[in-house]
Amino acid sequence: MISEIQVHTIARQMLERHGFAAIAKAAEQAKACEDRGEADEATEWRHIENAMKIIRGPHQS
Fold first, then answer.
1. Per-residue confidence (pLDDT) for residue 34, from 0 to 100
2. Alpha carbon distance 34, 52 (integer Å)
3. In terms of residue numbers, what domain contains 13?
4. Are 11 and 47 in contact (CB under 8 A)?
5. Sign of the torsion angle spanned by Cα atoms 4, 7, 33, 41
6. Domain contains 61
7. Burial tier of 4 (Cβ tally within 10 Å: 0-12, 13-18, 19+)
8. What top-level branch of life does the organism fall under (predicted)?
9. Are 45 and 30 in contact, with CB atoms under 8 Å apart?
10. Three-state SS for 37?
11. In total, how many domains does the chain have?
């Protein structure tokens, strides 16, 4: 399992590199891991996905 600091570092780097499309990329990676039966890796990708959502902030209406 990766540390919380690593999760947020990865999330920030992905957002810088891919913009908010990075959230979808993380979700795709999580799904791919789940499909391969890699539950721990999927959990890490979901954690990264959630960190990016926190960094992004709430939706505005």
1. 97
2. 20
3. 4-56
4. no
5. negative
6. no
7. exposed
8. Bacteria
9. yes
10. coil
11. 1
